């Protein structure tokens, strides 16, 4: 396991800094997690919308092709004089696989009317309708800001048992030593300057003599 700790001038400040750091990291993780979820939702919604649009085009093209075939079948049925559906009476009836006329001109005309009246291909395709509902639910979904704990610690921030770093006594001793060294240095420097002045004065006296 890992232990997270901070050093501060006082115990209370150390506890406060540690708690603030934990909260700061938690807020960042929560924010990044929510942004990632929103991005994934947006990508998924866009993908499903584009796929749904392509399938709509495919089904619309298929519907247009069926309508055109029915037009041809109606022309053939009228040319053959078949107005009513053809019944086999138990016998096999051979029909054109491309342009069926077994419904007769009346049946084909009615079927053509129905298919031409379709304004939304989802009306005749249950799978497309289900997917359209799914896409609408995705588009309406909104990931709001929520508060959650991204990770947990075994213990909450507590007051430190002992104070980290040098104690007051050590700090006082070091300060005294540094002060003494600076004082000695000042005395030596002053003594050197006085000695230098005396030497210069003696040299001048000797020249005068």
Automatic annotation (TrEMBL):
GO molecular function: protein tyrosine kinase activity
InterPro entries: Bact_polysacc_biosynth/exp
NCBIfam families with a match to the protein in the record: PRK10381.1
Keywords carried by this UniProt record: Membrane, Transmembrane, Transmembrane helix
Keyword Nuclease: no
SUPFAM superfamilies on file: Bacterial polysaccharide co-polymerase-like
Name of the featured protein: LPS O-antigen length regulator
Classification of source organism: Bacteria, Pseudomonadati, Pseudomonadota, Gammaproteobacteria, Enterobacterales
Organism: Salmonella thompson
